[in-house]
Amino acid sequence: MSDYAIEINNVFKRYAEHVAVKDLTLRVPKGAVYGLLGPNGAGKTTTIRMILNIIAPDEGTISILGRPANDPAITDNIGYLPEERGLYRKMQVRRVLRFLAELKGMKRDVADARITEWLERFDLKTAEKDWGLSKIDELSRGMQQKVQFIGTLVHDPDVVILDEPFSGLDPINAQALKDTIVELKQRGKTIIFSTHLMDNAERLCDSVCIIARGEKVLDGRIGEIKHSHGSRNIALALDGAPSTGLSAVFQDRALVDRVDDHNRYFDIELANGADPQALLQRIVATGASIIRFEIVQPSLHQIFLERVGAQGIEMGMTGHG
Amino acid sequence: MAKLWAIMKREYVERVRTKWFIVVTVFGPVFFGAMIIIPAVMAKRSKSTSEFTNTRILDATTSGAGQRIVDAMSRGQAPGSTLPQVYLVEAAALSQAESTATRQVMAKQLSGYIVVDTRTLGGEEVRYAGRNATSIPDMERLRAAVKEALLAKRLENAGIDSSKVRDLTFIPLRLKTERITDKGRGGSGAVSIIFAGAIAFLLYMSIVIYGQNVLRGVLEEKTTRVAEVVVSSVPSETLLAGKVLGVGAVGLTQQIIWVITTVVMFELREPILAKFGVTTMPFSLPEISLGFGVLLILFFILGFVFYSSLYAAVGASVNTEQEAQQAVQPLLILLVATAVFINPILLNPTSRLASVMSWLPFSSPIIMPLRLSLGSVPWYELLATLVGLLLACFAAVWVAARIYRVGLLMYGKRPTLREMGRWLSYSR
């Protein structure tokens, strides 16, 4: 048996107008929480669909738990939550969930018991009201999202794939989802999720892969990635408005590669070989009143910006979540 | 296989549970029942108006012709039923009497009047004016009665005994029609045309209704993105097959319920009609042989698979109901073109048009059963049609499966025909 839950080897997917995925190779360790990061249109959804065998790669291989992705038996062991969510509106909640469970090869009576457990866990079945007997369109949006989680997890899959799971969630459901992800990890499941919310990814993931324009930019364990990008980032905080000479300092390409300007707070990335002390002296010389100047490990967000670059970022890419 | 079954079951159960299905399924037999009962009741009604109650005969002759007409009309009637009253008028005062009667009809004191004069005696003309002047059976009955009265008078003039004349002139003749086909005599002509038309119409309606149903189902899954969850568990071909078969089973269920209830109602029509005070006319359903029944189901299934897989492809290639309505036009044109020819082919089932329409795969599921129910079709022609339809089904399913697979996951702009053509070559 392989140590990897998912292995993708040299996969290509081309469409008439563009190449969606180009020579992608990645490994998702078993039991990991794995983030697939990238701007919109980077090829995240195409990659996920290939893992799920909804579409087939033009070249390369994908294996899941040591078996090829197009093995029909393997699909029963995967749970999938698509980015855009919806369910049969006119159908009773329990019937929808039973249908989804049957599609994963579950027997009806086993499924029914499991559905009851999940409905109770997500407060959809309480002493006063059993929402399981209502139709989907009688539920609030938040409740529908919960039903969708249940549909993803009802057959207790070993691999769970979530496409942009946090988009459109209210804070309570977002918390519930985080708790669920952590619990799944503790039970030894592998969770892969795509997101463009770097803060979420940084806090939740063991490993990440950043892709842009269909190509892998970098991958690895979060700690290693941050370490390898460390020591060139500076957190600067000022007291009062920034002094006028400051922007000239930031534009000195011998010193500074990139600045993320938050008005009174700056994430600065040093130019290759630049001395942080020299930068500090230049900033002091502008007359700025400094309350913090610290060499820090870069955030995932900064690494992302550095490696993908502003041109890789399209509409809807916000970074901070 | 279990997953295909799960999809079929969902499609079937969720549709059969809807109020729409229950209402239509119950309404169908009520409608057929009404088709049997209402004409019978109407026929009875129209008879009662033909009693010429409150009608006046203005007899300007002195020969007693008016009374003879009343006598002729009274024959074949239940005793005591009201008959026209005879007013003897002077020939000179006739126009005066007519205008009085006209005013009375206008004031609804009379329903009509008959004018009998010398021209009537000559066998040239009898005039009637009244509210029921457009009723063909009434007028026919009046004409027959006057003819009979005149004939009786002439026979009497020729010296035949008046009591004999009564017997001789009474001929309550009815025209009974029977149709001859290649197989021999079979039922009444009108009945088999109605029957064939009903079958063609039923096939047409079910293909349109349930094809649209497939389209709407596919579109719902696409817009709610359930499709994505489903095709992550089963191949898209399985989803397509489950949907077409599940919806087809709903259509078949409905038709079987309709046919059974209609036949049962037909068998029970005597007590039912008796409740409405109508006696049944001699009328029999055309014999449906087992072979014809099997062919009918086969044509429905093949026609449904052909059209509904194309409907599914349309549903997968669009994003909204409005787009769907446009994109479905080519399919509807094929179906409507077929429906338009149902009537001409009914009237002339042996024409070239009928033959050609019954061969073409897009119209054969509707027109061939129609031809079969109107007469026999050579077995080799039937076989060739079935094979052609079967091949067309394979082609339609092949094309639909590819468009469906790609279209289901494509959102945004509606694809052009060229793009859809390219989808056919996508491996997966």
Secondary structure topology:
The complex is a heterodimer of chains A (321) and B (428).
Chain A: E1 4-14, E2 19-29, E3 33-37, H1 44-51, E4 59-64, E5 67-68, H2 72-75, E6 78-81, H3 93-103, H4 108-121, H5 141-153, E7 159-163, H6 171-186, E8 190-195, H7 198-204, E9 207-212, E10 215-221, H8 222-228, E11 233-238, H9 246-250, E12 256-261, E13 265-270, H10 276-285, E14 290-296, H11 300-308
Chain B: H1 2-16, H2 19-49, E1 55-59, H3 65-74, E2 85-88, H4 94-106, E3 112-116, H5 118-121, E4 127-130, H6 136-157, H7 162-169, E5 180-181, E6 184-185, H8 189-223, H9 226-231, H10 236-267, H11 269-275, H12 290-317, H13 321-327, H14 329-340, H15 342-347, H16 352-359, H17 364-374, H18 379-407, H19 417-423
Parallel strand pairs in B: 1-2, 1-3
Antiparallel strand pairs in B: 3-4, 5-6
Helix pairs in contact in B: 1-10, 2-10, 3-6, 6-7, 8-10, 8-12, 8-14, 8-17, 10-12, 12-17, 12-18, 16-17
Q: What does the model show?
A:
The complex is a heterodimer of chains A (321) and B (428). With 321 residues, chain A is of the alpha/beta class. Chain A folds into 2 domains: 4-222, 3-Layer(aba) Sandwich (Rossmann fold), CATH 3.40.50; 231-296, Alpha-Beta Plaits. Chain A has helices at residues 44-51, 72-75, 93-103, 108-121, 141-153, 171-186, 198-204, 222-228, 246-250, 276-285, 300-308, and strands spanning 4-14, 19-29, 33-37, 59-64, 67-68, 78-81, 159-163, 190-195, 207-212, 215-221, 233-238, 256-261, 265-270, 290-296. Chain A has a 6-stranded mixed sheet with strand order 6-7-8-3-9-10, sandwiched between helices. A 4-stranded antiparallel sheet of chain A has the order 2-1-4-5, with helices on one face. Chain A is globular and about 75 Å long. Chain A starts with a strand and ends in a 13-residue tail after the last helix. Chain B has 2 domains: 2-39 and 189-423, no CATH class; 52-169, Rossmann fold (3-Layer(aba) Sandwich). Chain B has a 4-stranded mixed sheet, with helices on both faces.
